[in-house]
Amino acid sequence: MVTLLMDIYLQGINMKFLLKALFCALLTTTLLFNISLVSAEPKAVTIQQVVNLNKSTLDDLVTLKGVGQKKAQAILAYREQIGAFKSITDLTKVKGIGEKILIDNKERLKI
């Protein structure tokens, strides 16, 4: 009889321990989930403007991928010396502008 009572008592202790462990696990999961929701930052959406090769300013041109001050100035100089671009591919005629820059920016370029 004593062993039976001991078994019941120990099972009660094990049950309490198990319930505490489950409660802690549930609480931890809930806290971690809520923290991840709070700390999740909205993704920034950047809207890239279309750049008209024949009307763009230096500031417009430097927004293109791979085009800095020097290349933007070269584009403006080409436009002043040669005239308006007839097609987007004419951009590769500018010194320092290659196919890669054209490909990287083709969605943003227009005549």
Describe the structure.
There is one protein chain. The chain has 111 residues and is mainly alpha-helical. It is 57% helix and 4% strand. The protein folds into two domains: 1-42; 51-110, DNA polymerase, domain 1.
What distinguishing features does this structure have?
111 residues; mainly alpha; DNA polymerase, domain 1; 2 domains; two-stranded parallel sheet; rod-shaped
Quaternary structure type = single chain
Order of helices and strands: HEHHHE
How many independent structural domains? 2
Number of strands: 2
Described by strand count, sense and barrel closure, the largest sheet is:
2 strands, parallel
* Cα radius of gyration in angstroms: 33 Å
What's the CATH C level of the largest domain?
A: Mainly Alpha
CATH architectural category of the largest domain: Orthogonal Bundle
Q: Quick one: CATH superfamily of the largest domain?
A: AF1531-like domain
Please state the overall shape, judged from the principal axes of the Cα atoms: rod-shaped
Helix content: 55-70%
Beta-strand content: under 5%
Order of strands, widest sheet: 1-2
Q: What's the overall average pLDDT, rounded?
A: 80
Termini distance? 97 Å
Low-confidence stretches: none
The secondary structure category is mainly alpha
What's the total helix number? 4
Layout of helices and strands:
Blueprint: H1 2-39, E1 51-52, H2 58-61, H3 69-82, H4 99-105, E2 109-110
Parallel strand pairs: 1-2
